[in-house]
Amino acid sequence: MNPIIDGIQKALQLILSGDPAIYGVVYRSLFFSGVATIIAALWGTPIAMLLGLREFRGKSIIKTFFNTLIGMPTVALGLVLYLIFSRAGPLGPLELLYTPGAIILGEAVLVTPLIISIETTAIEAVDPEIMDLARTLGASESQTSLAVLKEAMNGIILGNIAGFNRAIAELGVALLVGGNIAGLTDVLTTGISMWTQRGGPDGLAMAMTLAFILLLIVFGINLTIVIVRKVRILLTFGKSPQ
Amino acid sequence: MTTLAELKNLTKCFGNRIVLDNITLQIEEGEILALLGPNGAGKTTLLKILAFLERPESGEVEFQGETVTEKNAERMRLQSAIVFQRTLFFSTSVYNNIAYGLRIRKLPQSTVKEETKKALRLVKLEGSEKRSVKKLSGGEQQRVALARALVLKTKLLLLDEPTANLDPKNVQIIEEVIATINHELKTTIVMATHNMFQAKTLPQRIALMNDGKITETGAPAEIFGKLSKNLASFAAVDNTFTGTAKTTSAGTTLVDIGNGVQIEATDQRQGVTSIFVNPQDIIVSKSAVVSSARNVFKGRIIEVLDLGSLVKLRVDVGKPFTVQITKRSFSEMQLNLDSWVFLAFKASAVQVI
Q1: Residue B126 covered by a domain
Q2: B207, B193 in Cβ contact below 8 A?
Q3: Whole-prediction pTM
Q4: Collapsed DSSP state (helix, strand, coil) of residue B287
Q5: More exposed terminus of chain A, fewer Cβ within 10 Å: N or C?
Q6: Which chain A residue shows the shortest CA-CA distance from B98?
Q7: pLDDT single digits (tens) B69-85
Q8: Which residue of B has its CA nearest to A141?
Q9: Above pLDDT 90, what percent of chain A?
Q10: Is residue A17 within 8 angstroms of chain B, CB to CB?
């Protein structure tokens, strides 16, 4: 029988079977990339606020710096991090190599430029007079910045979702600093890579299973955003006085 | 009367431009003071300084006897509120916009709810709590902006052209609100306006502004009385002219303002008279229109000012008139500097001061 068709059939069976090994991989993917995105947002948002709200010398250089890093090849970053985490590297003593921590940290570094870029644009798009408005209503400087953040919330959420998408879909960092250790650091992307290389009907079946799930997650998130936006538009039209 | 705020020898610059030139002004507690002057006179900047949002290059700002500095400005801002000319809102409901300042002041939920409801009632927008501000009409938005400021019950309320570009119904509501809060809450109000009619009826005192300076202050009757004889101050406000009035056989008044321009008004007057025509009452057309308008003049556009969705034009019909049209009309009529146009307005639109 055609190995590809055979593989597809086996893949469907595997997905429906609820195989704990597979769902373990899915869980780890979601968890590592999720935490990585949160970390990137935590240290990226203050930077985006600085870039979005303040004027200072060297600002455009820093913005260009982050914009350029968006396109960082994941495997190149993976190599850099490998060298840093390895025993001979500066963070060697932390023994992070081939642990979940390395993947989380690595993906956080990977998606930070993307999150900063999108958030900065969203913050810059907020009418600067909003700050004067908040001030005149009695807000302190920090409350004023918070008001701007709230106005930019749509863009900020979008930036974080884009970051998560990038994290969960990347291979280079997870492979090089995670090592694809079964049950510990294997994720969807590293799994797809490994099973495809193993080949054979079973290998292809597993690879297709994981790929299918990965596509489901990524498209699912994006479809949800589109639907939520459309629903919001419909709701606001529904509420209009006309 | 005690002095609430004082500006002493205040100068404010933006880059090389002097926007406020050695201004000295006292704001008495409980009064309504109108700043009257053309665009660019510095009214908005003066209000922003009183709102403690801008700092002057030189001179002092005093509030309740205390000098305002960089350090205490944030604290002082809790005592004044400004409503900007361009309505600006947080992207949320009417309720949340109005409640914002109250929540900053850490007032309890129940108080926030009660005060917000009261404010909405005052501006005649009860029941609008859940509506999205961005969906409201221009007039409703201005009323929400006003409610948002007055709910804070600050000592000083600053209004930048509060009724500019609004329909008469909304103008009336807002003017009533202003009069009410001044009368009942004894709020001191400083308002910038273009509108001579408003300046006559609402404030207790007027400060005339031009080119960053205050040229005169006084009660409306005083100022308008003097203006009739003072051509120079007149040039400071759009569409105000002095001339000689004569009653016509039809029972109207013809005012000769010079250069062959004669304006027909319904108010009866004789002798030296001052008149004012609201820019919004003037219709602009490319050709002469046969209509009930008694005043039709042909002139050239000598100045174009882009105000976003509106365009302000100065048209020389022998005397310069300021008119206001939508940007859409401006482009549809293909108007430009030096274009010839016809201005038309009714005799009843001419306000005799």
Answers
A1: yes
A2: no
A3: 0.72
A4: coil
A5: C
A6: A137
A7: 988 988 899 999 999 98
A8: B74
A9: 70
A10: no
